[in-house]
Amino acid sequence: MDVPLREKGVYTFGPFRLDPTRRIVLCAGAAVTMTARLFDMLLYLVQNPERLVPRDELEHAVWQSRVVADGNLQKTISLLRKALQVHEPAETFIVTVPGRGFRFAVPVAFEPYPIGISSAGPFDDLAGPAADPRHPRRWWQGKAALLLGLQVLLLAAIAGAIWRPASPVPPPAPFAPPPHSVAVMAFTNLSGDPRQEYFSDGLSEELINALDRISALQVAARLSSFSFKGKSATIRDIARQLDVGTVLEGSVRRDGKRLRITAQLVNAETGYQIWSRNFDRDEGDIFKVQGEIAEAVATSLQVTLLGDDAAKLTLGSTTNPHALDAYLRGMMLQRLFTVDSQRQALAAFDEAVALDPNYALAHAQRAATMIRFVEGFGGLGSDLAATQQYRARAMAEAQLAVSLAPRLGAAHAVLAGADEEAWRFSDAEAEYTRARELAPGDAAIEQRYAHFAVAMGHNALAVAAAQRGAQLDPLSPIAYVDLAAVLIWAQRPDDALTSLRHAQQLGFGGPRVTDETALVELQKKHFEKVRQICAGMQNWAQDFYLAIADHALGRQDEAQAALAKLLAQEGDNSAFYHAEIEAQWGDTQAALQWLETAYRLHDDGLIGLKTDWRANPLRGNPRFQDIVRRMNFPP
After folding, report:
1. Which structural domains are found in the chain, ordered by start?
2. Is the pTM of this model over 0.85?
3. Range ranked top by mean pLDDT from 107-111, 117-121, 155-159
4. pLDDT in tens, 537-585
5. How far is CA 364 from the centre of its chain?
6. Residues 6 or more apart whose Cβ sits within 8 Å of residue 334
């Protein structure tokens, strides 16, 4: 936190001295150890003594661009009280005003440094913390090191003073990651063929999933761990950013049917190897190798594998190496989000389940890919019959995956998605609940549930789940874009912008950030800003936003042109969005007619009809309420 200082000096309260420039707190001359966040919170409260500081103001001052998870503020306040607990009761310094905020309740004095003296001189790290402001440092204490000794002796003799070195600067807050925590890096592909990257990445992801099923382990999510791929970062840096105590790294060399896999588990604080091993095996032994690595990690972290945990390591998997290879290829293709990649991914999953009909994970991802076809990524266009066919096939595949591996959280999550697409919302809610119970550390499941919950009107649950998804995957910009989307739906546009800025700070931009930003400004009725953002867009959403913004700004011809363009490009596929445009224009009858078309076509947009703020002008209309009733939303 960058805190503007009125002038350089020290705040004093009770037995404490707080130096903002040196970022140090002393109690009776001894340094008080606290993290940077605790220091920032204390400084803000000290600079606002005796004033009620609202919760949201304190959150913004301390966390700034980050979205604050529920409970983090109160937890930080509690830790700060413990740090200040010396003589006085914990409540003496910081008083909680229930439901409103906090107040720093003791008198605070500010003692500036003498004119021309700064506590941040070039040798302060050697000299230690700032002196007590009641006994300010003399001018000669900041001079060059070469003359320091002579000047000290000379002036001490003249003034009759004895120079005493200050206390050493306290070390930074110790790194204290959660116990039994690990991050799995993307294993290096040493095969000499870049086309084998999917295999080394896939094995790494399989290890992440296997380890995440061990209840006593805390495993960093894939996107955060893989964010370091190809970058120069030390083990210690990686561990601190991911908040883990150990890092698993390795390499894969694939030569025909032979595999050479190396793996090592490293203590993040010391940099020493905890465990390492080389595996030279036939490709058919890959599953045994995965199991040995996972068990070695658990054992090295002093985690006892219970019978249930051991079974979870291979949950939903296969013993056919060719099926595994097809599955890993499918996962790589699925993430590319193009029409061709989705079709190729589906073909790969088809191959995997043909090779092993009991491969639950492959069935689940086959269903997930079919759902993407239904959502518009498969190039089905307005082919209603094909869309209905893929929706039914996705449901059957997801149900098969659950029946083959009832304790596989990912399978239940995919089935929940299939239930959503079938407008079986109560069933979807039950499946999401089961998925989260089985895989509490899966960031992707939290994010999927968050989107569903906010569409159902459960805003608090949705935001909490999206925030947890971001906490589990802290270096994933996608997690923060997902959080922003949920916050927009919950009508918290300012918080959504904060989350989008964080995604951009993590290096993520592109169409999705632009789309969500435009939606925020549309929600805030900043229509000129919407038009500016749309200038850089190149998709159907541009016409959707412009149709609403231009109409609100009185540019009726431009708004009509945008709507006509949207209809020409998307046809009836844009029925739901056409309805929302007409609703925003105030043409209720046209909006309701387009909603009926959307209902007939089983338009995905209707999943959010219960809570979508863009349809608010229609909510009092009986025909609108009848459509909502027919959707069978849960209470």
Report:
1. 1-174 (1.10.10.10), 181-311 (3.40.50.10610), 315-437 (1.25.40.10), 510-635 (1.25.40)
2. no
3. 107-111
4. 878 889 999 999 999 999 999 999 999 999 988 888 889 999 999 999 9
5. 24
6. 341, 342, 345, 365, 368, 369, 372
